[in-house]
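> example.struct
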């Protein structure tokens, strides 16, 4: 897979915006070059649901006509939006034709903020049906990981992860209800921050998946992650400050009984621990108080979220994939029996906050994944049981922090022996998004990663 010969395809969002603001290039040229690269690469990757060719060029021309480019932090930057988030003029797909809703009359607030910052939406990216899975495939094809085309880029923001890792866009919108930003970040070697509750407007699905879903971005650098976070959070551009000496808990323990991280993921955590110490921080072993009750409540809420989405849309279960149908059936049962009660989420949040406070922790370090990303193909038509086995075994570490409403970030730390990226997860208490990004920036400086899979 070859890149179009232009210096700004594969550049960072900050580099592109700076070049457009300075007049070194135009938004129109940048968007045209990226659309050309998408046309070359996406037939193989299948990252995009819709590519807005003509519309994106028109929007890029409007950016070039503006007099206030200096005030646009994303001036001319091509971005992609996950297909479950309304973009004016496009259907909202939710991962399948059966779940697709009518053409949106207006942008979601996060899309409006991206455009208000000067970004140009070049298309929408693929996800699994209703965003339920950590793999991104459907009966009409699988989205592929640019690092290894036979492997998944993760999910549910898998299309976003593949698009950024391949350089098709420098920054992609994503959202995370049970790990859907951080899992693709780990699979694709990207930076992925899930903000804490209430930081970025949600308004996604029925009650925002019981308040667990958060919007964010996937990027190749921490600087771009800061830029995207500030835009989505409606904040003025701000630089990170060097964190003081932190006390960081380190845990390999899986939230899922019987699932353990493989050797490369254990090694990634060890590497991250050394980087923390070298940066002047203290590390201590600290095992989060996961419990069987947390697992039951988490699963029940995951199931119930699917049920409420399908029920609210009035969908015929027969039109959905087999794995989704069973998930919804279990969700109906779990919801009616109170397994998704708010008290369960409140209880785990209180427990998690006590864990940080009692151990005197500023952050928690865990693996991002337990094993290598699974194969890209064969999941959408498979049984619910086989999908559950794959998802729970390879990506158990993200979901508890949605359940608690706490911010968390995945940062690359190297490459597995099989050639796929390695990442680690940091979790923080409420309002620690900038601290998480600052620590990620220390990692990037001390241990730079390969930004793009295909160069």
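> example.seq
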């Amino acid at each position: 897979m070859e890149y179009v010969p232009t210096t700004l395809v594969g550049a960072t969002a900050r580099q592109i915006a700076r070049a457009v603001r300075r007049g070194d290039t135009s938004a129109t040229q940048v968007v045209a070059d990226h659309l050309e690269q998408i046309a070359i690469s996406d037939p193989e990757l299948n990252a995009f649901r819709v590519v807005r060719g003509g519309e994106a060029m028109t929007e890029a021309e409007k950016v070039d006509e503006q007099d206030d480019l200096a005030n646009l932090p994303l001036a001319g930057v091509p971005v992609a939006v996950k297909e479950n988030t309304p973009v004016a003029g496009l259907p909202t797909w939710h991962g399948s034709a059966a779940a697709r809703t009518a053409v949106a009359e207006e942008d979601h607030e996060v899309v409006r903020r991206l455009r208000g910052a000067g970004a140009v939406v070049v298309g929408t990216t693929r996800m699994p049906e209703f965003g339920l899975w950590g793999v991104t495939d459907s009966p009409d094809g699988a989205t592929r990981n640019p690092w290894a085309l036979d492997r998944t880029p993760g999910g549910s923001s898998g299309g976003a992860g593949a698009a950024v890792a391949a350089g098709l866009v420098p920054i992609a919108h994503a959202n995370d209800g049970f790990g859907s930003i951080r899992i693709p970040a780990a699979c694709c070697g990207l930076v992925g921050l899930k903000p804490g509750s209430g930081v970025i407007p949600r308004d996604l699905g029925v009650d925002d998946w019981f308040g667990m879903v958060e919007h964010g971005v996937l990027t190749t650098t921490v600087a771009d992650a800061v830029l995207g976070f500030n835009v989505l959070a409606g904040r003025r551009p701000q630089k990170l400050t060097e964190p003081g000496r932190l006390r960081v808990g380190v845990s390999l323990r899986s939230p899922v009984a019987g699932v353990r991280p493989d050797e490369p993921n254990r090694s990634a955590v060890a590497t991250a621990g050394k980087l923390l110490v070298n940066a002047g921080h203290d590390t201590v072993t600290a095992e989060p108080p996961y419990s069987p009750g947390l697992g039951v409540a988490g699963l029940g809420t995951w199931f119930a979220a699917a049920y409420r989405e399908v029920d609210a849309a009035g969908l015929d279960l027969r039109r959905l994939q087999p794995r989704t149908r069973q998930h919804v059936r279990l969700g109906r049962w779990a919801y009616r029996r109170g397994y998704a009660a708010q008290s369960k989420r409140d209880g785990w949040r209180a427990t998690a906050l006590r864990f940080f406070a009692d151990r005197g922790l500023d952050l928690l370090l865990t693996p991002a994944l337990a094993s290598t990303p699974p194969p890209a193909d064969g999941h959408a038509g498979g049984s619910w049981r086989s999908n559950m086995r794959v998802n729970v075994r390879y990506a158990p570490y993200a979901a508890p922090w949605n359940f608690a409403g706490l911010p968390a970030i995945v940062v690359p730390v190297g490459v597995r022996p099989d050639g796929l990226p390695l990442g680690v997860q940091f979790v923080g208490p409420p309002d620690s998004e900038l601290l998480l990004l600052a620590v990620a920036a220390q990692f990037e400086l001390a241990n730079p990663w390969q930004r793009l899979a295909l160069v």
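> remarks
Residues 138 and 380 are 5 Å apart (CA to CA).
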